[in-house]
Amino acid sequence: MGFLDDAKETAETAGRKIKEGFEDTKDRIGDKVDEAKADADVKRAEAERDSVEKRNDVKAKLRGDDE
Question: Which domain of life is it from (predicted)?
Answer without folding.
Answer: Bacteria
